[in-house]
Write a structure and sequence with these properties.
465 residues, four-stranded mixed sheet, Immunoglobulin-like, mainly beta, paralog of FGE (formylglycine-generating enzyme), four-stranded antiparallel sheet, 30% strand
């Protein structure tokens, strides 16, 4: 409704109507004396659906009434005005048929997911939340472009695409690039009570792949096994073993070193390889969520994971075949179990410690009580008597032997059983307890079982002729 000069008085005003035998009583409208025009008139039901319309002059349906809108009228003092606009039932018509402007809208489906970016602070040797920029695309269309804070961020994203190509960048760190399927990103919806999506940003200033350092272990004789291994009957009987001199790597093989190996041999992107000795086998389980490696431009690269924060951490998730092949590639071999225990005990310099280098395992071992459930860069705990690091805790270390019971007889340079189902693992890992971290503790695992390699890594031995 407007004044004669076009000034709008009421615009889409809702007025209650009461039906009395076909006549309607309206809520009162206050108007000053003057001339007006009724420009639009719609009758709606209780659900706000339009049921009757007064057509506008010039519209397609205007011919149905004698006097289409607008209708001019005058309000006079002390006179009753009877205004009777003609209306038409809506039926199957659309607003434009009656001359009314319309808008339409599409409801865009979306969902909210939570995301956090982490960097590793080497000073405090722990994770910390980080800021970064984030870009999410689908087939070249930008779905989200912005920044994330050092918090658990909530991001709203369209729910009508099949893939979400995510790029997260931070100066000084490798750019994180990953393509999430619709279902995999929906897993992190905030109303599904699942974990937040945790993105690991890796320092981009890593140096060249370090060479291996070796410690010479002079040959000697020791008592192998432990009568105090509670519940560990495979540590008995204690028996006399003599080993010849050998060299052992000072540190566990790192992520950087193992990545160099995979790229040098051109390992398949799924972690499998046709081994010259064992045929088509898996060297590293790339399918596990904890795996810190990815494929970038056709090569293995370190992307990090919540279990493996830096490239200086030990190689992890390695199968026995991968450990065996790496040692040969590096010019050595896997240690035999007797060699491993002799070196872990400190060789001829042994002080008889329960753990490798101490009777206090927190001094020498990353374990379930101090690791915060992730592997740590090699060499950060105390070394043992020979100067070897991490032979207790951090990651389990594969040995060459088939797993078997001990022989009571004295032995020289034993190499274990000639066959079996499982291979020996030694040293325990970052999720292990104090019992497992002892130098005498033994562990066995099937080399074909890809599920249990989260904590398995490598240490190299070289024979001295």
């Amino acid at each position: 409704m407007t004044k004669k000069d076009g000034t709008v008085i009421y615009d889409k005003e809702s007025i209650s109507l009461l039906n009395m035998n076909g006549y309607y009583i309206a809520s009162p409208i206050s108007l000053n004396v003057g001339e007006y025009a009724l420009t639009e008139f719609l009758v709606m039901d209780d659900s706000n659906n339009v049921v009757y319309v007064a057509p506008l002059a010039g519209s397609e349906k205007a011919y149905l009434v004698k006097t289409p809108l607008s209708i001019n009228f005058e309000v006079k003092k002390d006179e009753v005005l009877k205004l009777v606009p003609e209306v038409v039932s809506v039926g199957n018509s659309i607003p434009s048929d009656f001359g009314y402007s319309t808008i339409s809208f599409d409801v865009v489906p979306h969902f909210d997911f939570s995301l956090s970016a982490f960097i590793y602070n080497s000073t405090i040797q722990n994770w910390e939340l980080s800021t970064a920029s984030i870009l999410i695309e689908n087939e070249g269309n930008v779905l989200y472009d912005g920044n994330i804070g050092a918090i658990t961020n909530v991001i709203s994203i369209r729910d009508d695409v099949s893939t979400y190509n995510m790029t997260i960048a931070k100066p000084g760190y490798k750019t994180y690039i990953y393509s999430f399927s619709h279902d995999s990103l929906q897993y992190y919806k905030i109303n599904d009570n699942n974990e937040s999506l945790k993105i690991i940003l890796v320092n981009d200033s890593e140096g060249p792949i370090p060479a291996h350092e070796y410690i010479t272990v002079e040959g000697g004789t020791f008592q192998m096994g432990d009568e105090n291994g509670i519940g560990q009957s495979d540590e008995l009987p204690i028996h006399t073993v003599t080993v010849s001199s050998f060299q052992v790597s000072k540190y566990e093989v790192t992520q950087a070193q193992f990545i160099g190996f995979l790229n040098d041999i051109k390992c398949n992107s799924d972690g499998s390889y046709v081994d010259s000795e064992y045929g088509n086998v898996t060297y590293i389980n790339m399918d596990e969520s904890f795996c810190p490696l990815s494929i970038v431009d056709g090569k293995f690269d370190f992307k990090g994971s919540i279990n493996v924060p830096t490239i200086e951490c030990p190689a992890i998730g390695i199968t026995w075949y991968g450990a065996n092949a790496y040692c040969k590639w590096a010019g050595g071999r896997l240690p035999y179990e007797a060699e491993w225990e002799f070196a872990a005990r400190g060789g001829n310099l042994s002080d008889g410690y329960k753990y490798s280098g101490s009777n206090i395992y927190d001094d020498v071992a990353w374990n379930q009580y101090n690791s915060e459930e992730y592997a740590h860069p090699v060499g950060k705990k105390l070394a043992n008597e020979l100067g070897i690091y991490d032979m207790s805790g951090n990651v389990w270390e594969w040995c060459a032997d088939w797993y078997d019971v001990y022989d009571v007889d004295s032995q020289t340079n034993p190499t274990g059983a000639i066959s079996g189902d499982n291979r020996v693992g030694r040293g325990a890992g970052y999720l292990s307890n104090d019992l497992s971290c002892r130098v005498a503790n033994r562990h066995d695992n099937n080399p074909d079982n890809l599920i249990t390699y989260r904590g398995h890594g490598i240490r190299i031995v070289k024979s001295i002729n």
